[in-house]
Amino acid sequence: MASFICTMAASAGESPMLEALVSSGDLPPLAERIPASPLVVTPVDRVGDYGGNWHSALMGGSDDGWILRTLSYENLMRWSPDWTEVIPNIAESVEVNDDATEFTFKLREGMRWSDGAPFTADDIRFWYEDLFRNPQFTPSAQEPFINTDGSPVAFEMIDEVTFKFTFANPKGLFLQYLATARPLDNAAVRYPRHYLEQFHPDYSDDIDAEISAAGQADWVGLLTSKANFWANPDVPTINPWVFTTGYGSGDASRANAERNPYYWKVDTEGNQLPYIDTRTFDILSDPQVLVTKTLAGEIDFQDRSLATPANRPVLFEGRERGGYEFFEQTPASPNYMIMMFNLNHRDPVLEELFQNKDFRIGLSHGMDRQEILDVVWIGQGEVAQTSVMPGSVYYNEQLAKQYTEYDVDLANEYLDKVLPERGGDGMRLRPDGQPLAISFAYSAAVPIFGDALELVAAQWEKIGIRMVPTPLDRTLIQTRQDAGELEGVAWERGGGAGQEVVLDPRWWFPSNNDSYYWAPAWTAWFLDVNPETAQVQPEEPPEAARRQMELYGELQASPDPEEQVRLMNEILDIAAEEFWTMGVAWQANGYGVKKTNFLNVPASMPASWIYPTPAPTNPEQYFIEAQ
């Protein structure tokens, strides 16, 4: 039986901001606010200084990823800062039986929500019994809380601080799943029972009035909105900072947060974290404004939407004037830009075309990747398809390098098999004789994708393919994705290195919500969504994808790390043969920006959503050096 236990230290100091509240009687003493065994965080540089405001920015109205990465990475388990192991976090300890079917967690006695209410196993039970097992709130159970047959995991509350998950089959990746930032993986610890019961029909006699007052259609929408900590400042959390002005509420140009007085972590000298008192998130619509703010010294720490290869020269030149410096990020993404076609498009003509491998191969040979790399990413990187990065036990040479040669004649040879007819302008016609014009969507918050796609469009025009780069708000991309209307989409991140390859196989086969970009109906089938409630109707995938899904189920069930590697490599072999998606080039090492007095930031960290950068480096121990 494996056990994971954290060591602790006695509590000592706290922020002067909170000392004043204790002195006035508005807040209990520190010893009454933190657990008997708080989690000890080792500072990167030194024990920090209290105070200050961390200023960063969000792009548009749905950029919650930056919040999840820097403010709310609080799961039962977490990644170690070097991304080599899973360690306890909210859980003080966990015991796993020999065949990885039983996981017994012990919480921290005396831990509290941000409003001071106790955080106990009863909160986990509320999530499990009243939300996860409620068919209205959770129409279909999903990973990681399901057995291999799709049935839900069993739950037992043993006492106020102890509970157990029991699976019907070995669940070799369960603790790794619990360390990621995906919403489902930390769902069990995001629902404070004492606050949310009032919005649940089993506990509230006034639920209809609550639904009406909130402008929601039903109790599911009501509770979901009330549980959204970045939009609803009233919901208690266990995060280091709590919102005072929500994202999407109040001042539309800014969201604000302040320290959680009941935060349950301390440094090595017993001082309560976080060191920084407040957070400010400017809400911007133009990424260039973020660059301007950084050059003016107004951004304390940021990588998201800022640290692009195109911005690197101007940000490098402005370091002294802006009072900031770079830190390194090592890439985990499988490509600078992943290009996908919607293999389940609602138009049957486009669906058949996009599913034709010869079509995708022809377009791949029609891309001059070196030109794109040189112009858009300043030559920083290496031409490659969407693939696992070299050096990994999962690296697959065929997946990485096939069809990357720029050859117009070869491209035309493949395309002539699929689209032999052309119009008077020389552009290829659809199989039904209509002009072909492919809309390729990308996030307007990532303009570098637009630069790259403009080059691709010019290159594809030479082989008779009209492609139109289409910048969209991420919310609209999501809406069109759910409706099955996307034709092509450019994206990045996920699955290229480290633990991501196995935990986030979105590009290798239709496997998780991000696979909806290229195979929504097949993904819905794999996730076993309820067709009566799902926006995307499930459709049985072809044999190759089904085989990948079977192999992944075997991998998830295996407690043997070597067997997991073997099975994942077989999945990647099939991905190479099917050539589901295309890429441009592997990324060079990236960077982030921090003020020179913004300390306890590691010199280097992985750039990964599964990691999820920079969360495992413990932003609660970042601090602004007192001047």
TrEMBL record:
Its main location: periplasm. Pfam families: SBP_bac_5. Transmembrane segments: none annotated. It comes from the Bacteria. GO terms for biological process: peptide transport. It is found in: Periplasm. GO terms for molecular function: peptide transmembrane transporter activity. Gene3D superfamilies: Dipeptide-binding Protein, Domain 3 (3.10.105.10), Periplasmic binding protein-like II (3.40.190.10). Residues 85-496 form the Solute-binding protein family domain. InterPro entries: SBP_5 (IPR039424), SBP_5_dom (IPR000914). Belongs to the bacterial solute-binding protein 5 family. PANTHER family: OLIGOPEPTIDE ABC TRANSPORTER, PERIPLASMIC OLIGOPEPTIDE-BINDING PROTEIN, PERIPLASMIC BINDING COMPONENT OF ABC TRANSPORTER. This is Solute-binding protein family 5 domain-containing protein. It comes from Devosia elaeis. The lineage of its organism: Bacteria, Pseudomonadati, Pseudomonadota, Alphaproteobacteria, Hyphomicrobiales.
